[in-house]
Amino acid sequence: MERTAEQLTGAPARWWHTLDDGRIQCDLCPRDCKLHDGQRAACFVRANQGGQMILTTYGRSSGFCIDPIEKKPLNHFYPGSSILSFGTAGCNLACKFCQNWDISKSREMDTLMDSASPAAIAQAAKRYGAQSVAFTYNDPVIFAEYAMDTADACHDLGIKTVAVTAGYMHLPAAREFYAKLDAANIDLKAFTDEFYFKLCGGHLQPVLDLIAMVHHETDCWIELTTLLIPGKNDSATEIEALADWCHKELGPDVPLHFSAFHPDYKLLDAPATPPATLTRAREIAMQAGLRYVYTGNVHNRAGDATLCPGCGQAVIERDWYEILNYRLDDLGKCQHCGTAIAGRFGHFDKSFGARCIPVHLGK
């Protein structure tokens, strides 16, 4: 938390209360930041202004881009479709290995180059032919009010909404947030509290509680991602424990992505993840009973393929973000044997591909 003499601006925020000593406490995430007037929370974008909580980044973005849905990564949510992606600045975790650190760790509000209302974002998605809007690049938990208002505007136009998040959020706020979302990719960064505490500045259990809540209590489709860092969270024992928890708590059908780490931010001394580590993790998770396990940040067609749990055929073949073959009907059933694949599917014409198209929405 940091005191600032600047005049803060922004929109009224939710999920806070006043303490007996005059400070206000943020109730959005497990950090429970307690703020004096003029002080910012650990995320840097939620602040106390005159005894009221405000979101300083409401309506402001670090930029907009049209991406493939597979980049989120989401492999079972309208495969091949395009998605309008944007983020703001700041984060409520402190991951030493953050691979978007220039955005998520930014304290320079001038980096927020684009301004756009929720309605303007929804209209832009419609105009560019994007099926969904993604709240991503930094964690949308900390700009939840902006994301939720944007979700309402998107749904009014038939546009779906997606969050890419670490899932570090109190459950009461999360229930309201995820009720607005159609899908989310949630980082399950590791399966030990030591990892979360030492490398992320957080704790594991709140993330597990949130994942279980979203899966069991909402209609939001979820997929999970674990970035495997050599020597930190890639042991066979930890991967097996993670996969066993997923199978027991979520069932066999929630997709799990194992992604490759590259040295970045404050974790430059760890080596990049060998492709063999991802392949081994995928095998362990599938042996634990998970049906849809993927490898990410590497070219691995076997690890990118969606396999039918009925007949074993590859019903979607990919190379990174490119769909090479698609063998599902419009209801998401295998064209070979008729088995339904878990997820959200519709008519597939052609893949958007690996393109990334920057767009500008500002005035």
The chain-level structural class is alpha/beta
Q: Beta-sheet strand percentage?
A: 15-25%
> What quaternary form is this?
single chain
The gyration radius over C-alpha positions equals: 20 Å
Estimate percent helicity. Answer: 10-25%
Count of folded domains: 2
Number of strands: 22
Number of helices: 9
User: If strands are numbered along the chain, what order do they take across the biggest sheet?
Assistant: 18-17-16-15-14-13-11-10-22
Describe this structure in words.
With 363 residues, this protein is an alpha/beta fold. The protein folds into 2 domains: 2-55, no CATH class; 60-359, TIM Barrel, CATH 3.20.20. The protein contains 9 helices and 22 strands. The strands form 6 sheets. It has a 9-stranded mixed sheet. The chain has a 3-stranded antiparallel sheet with strand order 2-8-7, with no helix packed on it. A 3-stranded antiparallel sheet has the order 3-4-5, with no helix packed on it. Helix 7 (236-250) links the parallel strand 16 and strand 17. Helix 4 runs parallel beside helix 6 and helix 7 packs across helix 8 (275-287). The model is unreliable at 1-7 (pLDDT under 50).
Pick out its properties.
363 residues, alpha/beta, TIM Barrel, three-stranded antiparallel β-sheet, 24% strand
